[in-house]
């Protein structure tokens, strides 16, 4: 008889997760996911339940890695809070099961896991796609994802300048206090992104905040925030000019408002997966991925 599950919460998760270990594991797992070998990763598109009364959604994100013996799911609730409340916009729990018996082995606080996993995957996309001489990073948004993106991007790369912008300056002060390096706070999204080599969009907005006319050719954009089919962060111009990469084609075509609503041309996947579902990853033990659209303005 299996014992009760381990509960790994809050500070304990914080003490265990390090980008230097997480990033290579994610690279490996996303590569396996792209291979489409069911013994490596089975990860159906997530099921999303609207929580209309609370302006939110619950997503169920199961994954099985047979070869690794990892069976797990994440439950994530995310909200579009308009009331100025301080409640978090994302809460998550990760449940790890024994694939042979089905018993729960561990229950983990998924909030930090979500923050770090998402940012790590964006950083991996930059590692593979950004121009090697990239000097300027711009982050649109100043919330939880903005901070985790700042942390992993500055740990993995040497930018000369990091700029940040948020709607009405919300959270900029807290952002500057919380991160450990220099930041330039910009008064407009345009000011932040003009001339930037890498742009991360991590806002909760539902209309475009990043416009193609501001983005310099060759810039790499990690578009993270618009994770519902009717939410946007990038405008049609940028989407149509960009080469778009996603870790899951199905996910992007089901959940990415930027992909779905822009009418951007879709190429069929080709025999070389790196051209479409490239060597992107999705986590291993911490498996619970979804889509994440990345574009690289050509
Ligand atoms: N793709 C993924 O895997 C993934 C993972 C986690 C979170 N997300 C999404 O990323 C987004 C950011 O997540 P978070 O946890 O940092 O949220 P957060 O609430 O901590 O921060 C949101 C930021 O967006 C800004 N903002 C809100 N409304 C805006 C608007 N209309 N225009 C411009 N900026 C606006 C806020 O000022 C804040 O800086 C959310 O939409 C979330 O659902 C996606
Ligand atoms: O997959 C996730 O963890 C995120 C949480 C927030 C909404 C979008 N998806």
Automatic annotation (TrEMBL):
Homodimer. Binds the thyroid hormone triiodothyronine (T3); T3 binding inhibits enzymatic activity. Coiled coil: none annotated. Gene3D superfamilies: NAD(P)-binding Rossmann-like Domain (3.40.50.720), ornithine cyclodeaminase, domain 1 (3.30.1780.10). PANTHER family: KETIMINE REDUCTASE MU-CRYSTALLIN. One of its GO terms (molecular function) is pyrroline-2-carboxylate reductase activity. It catalyses: Delta(2)-thiazoline-2-carboxylate + NADPH + 2 H(+) = L-thiazolidine-2-carboxylate + NADP(+); (R)-lanthionine ketimine + NADPH + 2 H(+) = (3R,5R)-1,4-thiomorpholine-3,5-dicarboxylate + NADP(+); (3R)-1,4-thiomorpholine-3-carboxylate + NADP(+) = 3,4-dehydrothiomorpholine-3-carboxylate + NADPH + 2 H(+); L-pipecolate + NAD(+) = Delta(1)-piperideine-2-carboxylate + NADH + H(+). It comes from the Eukaryota. Pfam families: OCD_Mu_crystall (PF02423). It comes from Pogonophryne albipinna. Its EC number is 1.5.1.1, 1.5.1.25. This is Ketimine reductase mu-crystallin. GO terms for cellular component: cytoplasm. One of its GO terms (biological process) is thyroid hormone metabolic process. Belongs to the ornithine cyclodeaminase/mu-crystallin family. InterPro entries: NAD(P)-bd_dom_sf, ODC_Mu_crystall, ODC_N.
